[in-house]
Amino acid sequence: MTAVQLVLVGPMGVGKSTVGRLLAERLGVAYRDTDDDIVAEQGRTIAEIFVDEGEPAFRAIEKAAVHRALAEHDGVLALGGGSILDADTRALLAGQRVVYLSMDVEEAVKRTGLNAARPLLAVNPRKQWRELMEARRHLYEEVATAVVATDGRTPEEVTQVALDALELKEA
Predict the structure, then answer these.
(1) CATH value at residue 74
(2) How large is the angle between the packed helices 34-42 and 55-72, nearest 10 degrees?
(3) In whole angstroms, what is the distance from residue 169 CA to residue 24 CA?
(4) Are 66 and 83 in contact, with CB atoms under 8 Å apart?
(5) pLDDT at 83 exceeding the cut of 90
(6) H or E segment at 142?
(7) Are 101 and 16 in contact (CB under 8 A)?
(8) Does any domain span residue 70?
(9) Within-domain flag for 1
(10) pLDDT of residue 126
(11) Which residues contact 57 (CB under 8 A, 6 or more apart)?
(12) What's the domain range around 135?
């Protein structure tokens, strides 16, 4: 099994993809996003999978994609927001460098808005985001080596805080 250099977790819209690319660039390693893997493999968007097959089917697809990426990828890996719901996935993250990117509800609504591509926030974004975070925050914290708040920070600032928190040196 390849040792993943760094895994990013956190809610949808927190900036895992943007920060992940910046971290990979600064560390001189490859970047991979399991959501991108799923879209490429399935030939459709995550929202379409949710609508066509439902959340349980999507979570099974997501679990397989995450486990494959953790086994294959040596670099920066961003996981989908709900991937930490799976106990097997959380177990695989033990011993990895995991950064939980966090944000408050107002920041989340600004970033995600009423985005139809985010099926779990389709009806009442503020209420649904709060409920998702109440259910997931402790799981993100459980797997995290470091927690980095993204509120009011640029992606570059978040990247630097993550590097500092993990005491990682740039390439």
Answers:
(1) 3.40.50.300
(2) 120
(3) 12
(4) yes
(5) yes
(6) helix 125-143
(7) yes
(8) yes
(9) no
(10) 64
(11) 49
(12) 6-166
**What's this model's pTM, rounded to 2 decimal places?**
0.86
> And the tokens for 90?
């959380």
23-56 pLDDT per residue, tens: 999 999 999 999 999 999 999 999 899 889 998 9
Is the pLDDT at 142 greater than 80, yes or no? yes
CA separation for the pair 38, 83 (Å, rounded) = 12
Give the pLDDT score at 84.
Answer: 94
The DSSP bridge partners found for residue 148 are 101
Q: Is residue 139 part of a domain?
A: yes
Instruction: Say how far apart CA 109 and CA 100 lie, in whole Å.
Output: 18
If you search the block for the tokens 């993250």, which residue do you land on? Answer: 93
Q: Residue 171: inside a domain, yes or no?
A: no
Per this entry, what is the length of the chain?
171
Contact by Cβ (8 Å): 7, 95:
no
| Cβ proximity of 147 and 141 under 8 Å | yes
**Residue for token pair 């630097």:** 160
Spatial separation of the C-alpha atoms in residues 123 and 128, rounded to whole Å? 8
